[in-house]
């Protein structure tokens, strides 16, 4: 008794959402590998050169001041611990006063996390876990509500522009262009383009401010804006850490507002781009399904070609089997040197057995009589056709 495995096989076939999830994971892994290879080729030589320069300076300083390298490295480790606690060799702004602490919690709840300021006490680290758990969740909710309102406003604006253009078309007598105005919806590409322009404008304005107040180049300021607005937060560039910024209240307020606006707009842009990526994944799945169905159909068309029959050297009669399961006797052919020549007989799509000649010098007419069957062969360029006599 045969077992029915159809239900088991159907349960093993992944759904469209699962396939999209796996495909996205594979693409992200490939994207990360490509990024790792690119950044490694770009940054690794500079890292090796910096290590060489640092070792040379350390040896020169140790030789000049007659200090062992081990003692000097021990002092540098103490300096790193002090820097982690917020102590700087140059005098700067306080890190844990009310403005500094407010800047710190802003980087926590926005998930930027520059890393310049971090709690050093055990109590502060434990409190940060619970504080960030609630604060990050509330901020993400705020970002989602901001995204909903931005998408709604942009959709209404685009729909209003489309309706206005349709009214102009009706006035010009082109009523056919405005027939589907009620069913028209704004495209995700239009919203993505508007959000990209908004993020670019905010970044350019913020970069001009940071370039003037922080002493960075404009390119470094744009780099900081992307790192901060995308909540990556490397910490190599941090705004508002100089001493003379303490008394500049306007700059502190502008810095916070630009940071908040930039993070919200960038979060909205990332969500719109993710929708486009999902559409791309759906298109890839459709293309893979189309290619698979085409391959299956092609395989079904070529399925008769897998039934091969060969003419043996011993018997003079071989049988070619086609789709209709009819058998046709084919006479072997001898060359002018009377040596046996073999043929591979492949059934065609129309049920005719085509005997393709592998090596033919001279094919002669030869009769074969056995009982009631009488066959003869004649030469053909591509295949030999059995002719009843």
From TrEMBL:
Q: Which reaction does it catalyse?
A: K(+)(in) = K(+)(out)
- GO annotation, cellular component aspect: monoatomic ion channel complex; plasma membrane
InterPro entries xrefs? 2pore_dom_K_chnl, 2pore_dom_K_chnl_THIK, K_chnl_dom
Name the Pfam families on file: Ion_trans_2
- Protein known as: LOW QUALITY PROTEIN: potassium channel subfamily K member 13
Tell me where it resides.
Cell membrane
Instruction: Extract one GO molecular function annotation from the record.
Output: metal ion binding
Q: Which residues cross the membrane?
A: 21-42, 101-119, 126-147, 188-210, 222-240, 252-277
Supply the alphabetized keyword list: Cell membrane, Ion channel, Ion transport, Membrane, Metal-binding, Potassium, Potassium channel, Potassium transport, Transmembrane, Transmembrane helix, Transport, Voltage-gated channel
């Amino acid at each position: 008794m045969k077992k029915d495995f159809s239900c088991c096989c159907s349960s093993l076939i992944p759904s469209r959402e699962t396939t999209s999830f796996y495909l996205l994971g594979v693409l992200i892994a490939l994207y990360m590998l490509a990024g790792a290879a690119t950044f490694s080729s770009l940054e690794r030589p500079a890292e090796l050169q910096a290590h060489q320069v640092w070792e040379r300076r350390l040896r020169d300083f140790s030789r000049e001041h007659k200090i062992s390298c081990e003692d000097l490295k021990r002092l540098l480790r103490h300096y790193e611990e002090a820097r982690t606690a917020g102590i700087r060799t140059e005098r700067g702004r306080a890190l844990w006063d009310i403005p500094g602490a407010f800047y710190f919690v802003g980087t926590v709840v926005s998930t930027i996390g520059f890393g310049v300021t971090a709690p050093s006490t055990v109590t502060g680290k434990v409190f940060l876990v619970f504080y960030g758990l609630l604060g990050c969740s509330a901020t993400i909710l705020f970002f989602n509500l901001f995204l909903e309102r931005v998408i709604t406003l942009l959709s209404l604006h685009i729909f209003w522009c489309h309706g206005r253009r349709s009214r102009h078309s009706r006035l010009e007598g082109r009523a056919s262009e405005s027939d589907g105005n009620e069913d028209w919806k704004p495209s995700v590409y239009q919203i993505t383009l508007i959000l990209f322009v908004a993020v670019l404008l905010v970044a350019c304005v913020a970069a001009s401010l940071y370039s003037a107040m922080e002493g960075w180049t404009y390119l470094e300021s744009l780099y900081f804006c992307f790192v901060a607005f995308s909540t990556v937060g490397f910490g190599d560039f941090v705004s508002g850490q100089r001493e003379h910024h303490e008394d500049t209240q306007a700059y502190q307020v502008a810095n916070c507002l630009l940071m908040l606006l930039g993070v919200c707009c960038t979060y909205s842009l990332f969500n719109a781009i993710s929708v486009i990526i999902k559409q791309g994944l759906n298109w890839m799945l459709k293309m893979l399904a189309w290619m698979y169905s085409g391959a299956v159909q092609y395989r079904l068309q070529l399925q008769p070609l897998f039934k091969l029959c060969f003419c043996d050297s011993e018997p003079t009669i071989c049988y070619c089997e086609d789709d209709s399961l009819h058998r046709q006797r084919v006479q072997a052919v001898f060359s002018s040197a009377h040596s046996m020549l073999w043929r591979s007989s492949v059934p065609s799509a129309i049920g005719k057995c085509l005997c393709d000649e592998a090596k033919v010098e001279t094919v002669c007419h030869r009769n074969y009589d056995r009982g009631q069957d009488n066959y003869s062969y004649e030469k053909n360029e591509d295949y030999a056709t059995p002719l009843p006599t």
